[in-house]
Amino acid sequence: MPIDPTQPYDNANIFAKILRGEIPCNRVYEDEWALAFEDINPQAEIHTLVIPKGAYVSWDDFSARANAEEIAGFVRAVGMVARDKGLVEPGYRLLANTGVHGGQEVPHLHVHLFGGQPLGPMILRR
Ligand code: 5GP
């Protein structure tokens, strides 16, 4: 179920538990600002999630409240993971689902990093 994007941060969400080490993840990168791990239900050959260390519900919340260091650290981490995975050539896709229309299900900001194959059209029109 998509989340309500206006809700306060829920410390019990699954990615908060991963950040606290309460449930395992297949970690691919971690620094002061971000954690990256493989998606449990990959939608492409490579499907990695990158999340900020701070408690932010969504891209909207993060872009409004995070400080410049957090934003820079997170954006650099996303780029680093893509480079480490050798995705710059031939390319990759980033996605941050936000709110109901975006279909966001986990209420901790995450950027999906897709690659390893041609990714097709950006949006499937119904
Ligand atoms: P959203 O729809 O919120 O943008 O994406 C949530 C993503 O989190 C989905 O791709 C889903 O497969 C992934 N996911 C949900 N629970 C877990 C989990 O416990 N571990 C990992 N690694 N990924 C998860």
TrEMBL record:
Pfam family, one: HIT
Motif stretch (Histidine triad motif): 108-112
Xref: InterPro entries: Histidine_triad_CS, Histidine_triad_HIT, HIT-like, HIT-like_sf
Any one Gene Ontology molecular-function term assigned to this protein's record: catalytic activity
Active-site residues, Swiss-Prot/TrEMBL: H110
Domain of life: Bacteria
Protein name: Histidine triad nucleotide-binding protein
